[in-house]
TrEMBL record:
It is a multi-pass membrane protein. One of its GO terms (cellular component) is plasma membrane. The chain crosses the membrane at residues 33-59, 89-112, 124-144, 176-199, 230-250, 282-307. It comes from Streptomyces himalayensis subsp. aureolus. This is Sugar ABC transporter permease.
């Protein structure tokens, strides 16, 4: 028997119909793009416009002063690759960048592993090792210029310990000057790399190390199989910073050696300075700057792609 609708009993097995949810207008969570317009205009005025104008000057024979100059096309770039000083500077730039990247990060990682301990003086040691990174670049360069001089503290120390045969003109020798510059830069910034690696080490869960130790893994095995993959983000940051900084290097080289002896330590940056402000070849120097920009862009992009792929594979 079917009851009329107004006499039917409620069906307790059927869930009640859901009440309609009132539609609420979604609030804007991001600011309008025009808030960034003043900063973008300032950036364009200070950076983009001079950069584009500078690229144009790279195709001219402008001397930096005369308002009258000629368009020479690719002559500056062709002269660059026929100039032995320019090709040598490009080679020195790449050699310094690779050397700094490898040595600085290796030393920084070893220091980070050393200070990532529970000893009471660990904070003092960390501050002591990081201190050179906060010293002004020029101050550091002039300090080491005196230390590495013919009568500097390094040679005096060698005399004091009976190694007077090792005395060298560290910054005046064409064979040693480049490596002396690399050593100074590594001394100053190894602590900076150490801090980044230390942050990565402290983010590794202790439980993972304890589990690996229980499974019988030694210290080297735990580092290679547990710590190293988890350090991939810190390694990516350190490699990017050191390779880009090495390619753009100018302050320390110019203060330590001025690009000498001869052109033994010239980099692209020091050669740009000399050609522009000493020889008055602004068009040629800007062409060198364009090549430097391309090198930085290509190397940093390629490095980022490779390191990001390795970082995803490690995780």
């Amino acid at each position: 028997m079917t009851l009329p609708p107004y006499e039917q009993l409620p069906d307790h097995d059927r869930p009640p119909d859901a009440e309609p949810v009132p539609r609420v207008r979604r609030a804007r969570t991001t600011p309008p793009w025009w808030f960034a317009l003043p900063a973008l205009l300032l950036f364009a005025f200070v950076v983009l416009v001079p950069s584009v104008r500078g690229v144009y000057y790279a195709f001219t024979d402008w001397d930096g002063l005369d308002p009258h100059f000629s368009f020479v096309g690719l002559d500056n770039f062709s002269d660059m690759f026929r100039d032995p000083d320019a090709t040598q500077a490009i080679w020195h730039t790449l050699l310094i960048a690779v050397s700094i990247t490898v040595v600085q990060n290796a030393v920084g990682l070893l220091l980070a592993l050393g200070v990532n301990t529970a000893i009471k003086s660990r904070n003092v040691v960390r501050v002591f090792l990081f201190a050179p990174a906060v010293i002004t670049l020029i101050v550091t360069a002039y300090l080491w210029r005196n230390l590495l001089g013919p009568d500097g503290a390094v040679n005096s120390l060698l005399d004091a310990v009976g190694l007077d045969g090792w005395r060298q003109d560290w910054l005046g020798s064409p064979q040693l000057a480049l490596w002396a510059v690399v050593g100074v830069i590594v001394w100053q910034f190894a602590g900076y790399s150490m801090v980044i690696f230390l942050a990565g080490l402290q983010s590794v869960p202790k439980e993972v190390h304890e589990a690996a130790a229980i499974d019988g893994a030694g210290a080297v095995r735990r580092f290679w199989s547990v710590t190293r993959p988890l350090l991939a983000p810190a390694l990516t940051i350190n490699l990017m910073l050191s390779i880009i900084g090495g390619i753009k290097l100018f302050d320390q080289v110019y203060a330590l050696t001025g690009g000498g002896p001869g052109h033994a330590t010239d980099t692209i940056s020091t050669l740009i300075y000399k050609d522009a402000f000493t020889l008055g070849e602004f068009g040629y120097s800007i062409a060198l700057a364009v090549v430097l920009t391309i090198i930085v862009a290509v190397v940093s992009t390629g490095q980022y792609v490779v390191l990001s792929r390795n970082e995803r594979a490690a995780s």
